[in-house]
Design a protein that fits this description.
Two copies of one chain form a homodimer. Chain A is an alpha/beta fold. Chain A is built from eight helices and five strands; from the N terminus they run βαβαβααβααβαα. Chain A has a single domain, classed as HUPs (Rossmann fold, 3-Layer(aba) Sandwich). Helix content of chain A is 38%, strand content 11%. In chain A, α1 crosses α7 and α7 crosses α8. Chain A is globular, with a radius of gyration of 17 Å.
Amino acid sequence: MGEAIVLLSGGLDSSTVLAMVRDSGYEIVALTFDYGQRHLRELNSARRIAKHFKVKEHIIIPLDLGKLLKSSLTNGTMSIPKGRSKDDIGKGIPSTYVPSRNIIFLSIASSIAESRGAEAVYIAANSVDFSGYPDCTPEFIAAFQKTIDVATKAGKEGRSIRVFAPVLEKSKAEIIKEAVRLQVPLELTWSCYEGSVKACGKCDSCLLRLQGFADAGMEDPLEYEVR
Amino acid sequence: MGEAIVLLSGGLDSSTVLAMVRDSGYEIVALTFDYGQRHLRELNSARRIAKHFKVKEHIIIPLDLGKLLKSSLTNGTMSIPKGRSKDDIGKGIPSTYVPSRNIIFLSIASSIAESRGAEAVYIAANSVDFSGYPDCTPEFIAAFQKTIDVATKAGKEGRSIRVFAPVLEKSKAEIIKEAVRLQVPLELTWSCYEGSVKACGKCDSCLLRLQGFADAGMEDPLEYEVR
């Protein structure tokens, strides 16, 4: 088997996807973006996970869009929602939404994949226990696949880069169980939207993660300020 | 009317599109990428054109993908095709193709548009007198529009960013006539794939431009090494 590009944020989901892809036999090129997200600590997690799984190459791309984008994830003057109920998290699109983020990430990943001759791109988009982001849905993945099918040389030649989102329809608890099965070092992953020493335990991402561990009947090895 | 984002490379086509959009009454935010292209001189042309047309803002985004991409436009060790016939230029996809370039550019443009509340994104893709790039076709524009319709908050709320490619089906001669009508300072634009003092006159982009001027019965004000 050839190479696959895996989008790796350093979070639980993308670290698990990386382990799944490794398990399938691909050589892995991990791709991480430094796009002005608040939780730069994620980048260190990405580095550690990439190292842990001995990926062939870990590419970190600086993409300084922070001030240009309206998102509480990249803009320090906007506040990150805290303490929302599980029902509320599923409703609407929160301020942590980064416009077109996964379109940007997938397009650069596809470009690098085509340039290197890699066969596939993996993204840890999830549409079950998620924050309502519209670029984490099956419709998005299908529309993006269609776009690169028609708009790339590889696509025109009938060997389009394939975009896979293997945890798209898994619950957080299922992802955690898969992570454990594949021996993902969960203590190295980082999901919190804040970048403090301990995870905040109150942002949507912490709450979804903690609920996922509870549903899986397991203990999250991360330290939290509140849980 | 509100704001529109115009992708501006500094070439003939995008400078003309900018003039067309200005003519339509939008406030213009010009967006230029410094992505490791050989012809950095283009960037200066983009700056001059943006200044000439007094755009509201000119955003230049550094996106250093040069070494990661397989393209003679970004990789100095690959050679740019020279002296091809018009028939040859239309056939196949040349080495100057940059994988997923317009997908990357449009996705970042859409992201900024959504963040600022701009209504539209304009791209100077052209599928008539062009180099066979698959990301310059009506199919691509339609597929990309569908992607942002389903994958952005604006799209979900029924006010999707509209992507327009107003010179998509125009010949180079038609674009030049439109440029003249709209008083685009053609001497400030730069189309050559090389970044020398004079345009080379032999790369696909120079040849298409020169043929366009000939077809329009006009003289190109640029200096060429050979014409």
